[in-house]
Design brief:
The protein is of the alpha+beta class. It contains six helices and 15 strands. A four-stranded mixed β-sheet has the order 8-9-15-12. This is DJB13 protein.
Length: about 280
């Protein structure tokens, strides 16, 4: 039985998302999700709204087909997409400012390097076709693939589960592959294993020195002293404060600090005289 309260708990009509009546059965929910997910998959549908529509479909299916968690936890049980993790899920840490990169561990081991202390993401995949005992017919069944986050993975990293796709008579099940995508960060930009940070400083501090505060991805506050004269091409390198190296997370790349120098909008005659005396003498 599918409760209207379960759908309303997430603040959205998930039956409407899947274009279903509220009396829809399990089979109807699975069929609608499969049809709409194939139609709106971002790799097939190039419309700008496709990724968000695909996310809504997955979330709706995840909620309406929920049996393990039940209605009491429907507010916490969300589909987790690659590179994202819910802030309120007790078993999944919130994402780093730069998105976590992924590795996987599950009963069928994918081709990835395992790290025993990495966080975990649960990724419900589209319900696959599974062969029945008669070896002639197949049934759609749910399966959860577990992907653990490993520090340092890069954009484009592929996680493959062998033979976890649809099954059928005389058909070898296809592989399922997840591809890592990085989310943009409000403060940092990634450059391979390094992180780029742009500090805004006034002209006076650029000429006379200053300390640049930088809040790191793990919440530490660094005060980086700048004793050189900062010109528009100047870069301050802070060793070991970049991204973890994929094959050795104990080591990190560098933090590269570039500068946006703010010039004054106007100067008084006295200020101009002082600057001429200091800079042009």
């Amino acid at each position: 039985l599918h409760s209207d309260a379960a759908a309303a708990a997430m603040g959205q009509d998930y039956y409407a998302v899947l274009e279903l009546r509220r009396s829809a059965t399990d089979a109807e929910i699975k069929k609608a999700y499969r049809r709409l997910a194939l139609k709106n998959h971002p790799l097939k549908c190039k419309e700008p709204w496709a990724p968000e529509r695909f996310r809504q479909l997955a979330e709706a299916y995840d909620v309406l087909s929920d049996r393990e968690w039940g209605e009491c936890s429907v507010g916490d049980h969300r589909i987790i997409l690659v590179g994202e993790a819910p802030q309120d899920h007790p078993s999944v840490p919130p994402p780093l400012a730069l998105p976590h990169v992924l590795r996987t561990s599950c009963p069928s081991q994918p081709h990835t390097h395992l790290s025993r202390w990495a966080p975990t993401l649960l990724i419900p995949s589209s319900p696959p076709q599974v062969m029945n005992e008669d070896d002639q017919t197949s049934t759609i069944r749910d399966k959860i693939l577990t992907i653990d986050v490993q520090p340092g993975w890069k954009q484009g990293t592929r996680v493959t589960f062998e033979k976890e796709g649809d099954q059928g008579p005389n058909v070898i099940p296809a592989d399922i592959t997840f591809i890592v995508q990085e989310k943009l960060h409000p403060r940092f930009k990634r450059a391979d294993d390094n992180l780029i940070f742009v500090a805004t400083v006034p002209l006076g501090k650029a000429l006379t020195g200053c300390a640049v505060p930088v809040k790191t991805l793990d919440g530490r506050l660094l005060n980086i002293p700048i004793n050189d004269i900062v010109d528009p091409k100047y870069c301050k390198v802070v060793p070991g404060e970049g991204m973890p190296l994929p094959h050795d997370p104990r080591r990190k790349g560098d933090l590269l600090i570039y500068f946006d120098i703010c010039f004054p909008k106007k100067l008084t005659p006295d200020q101009k005289m002082l600057l001429r005396s200091a800079l042009l003498s």
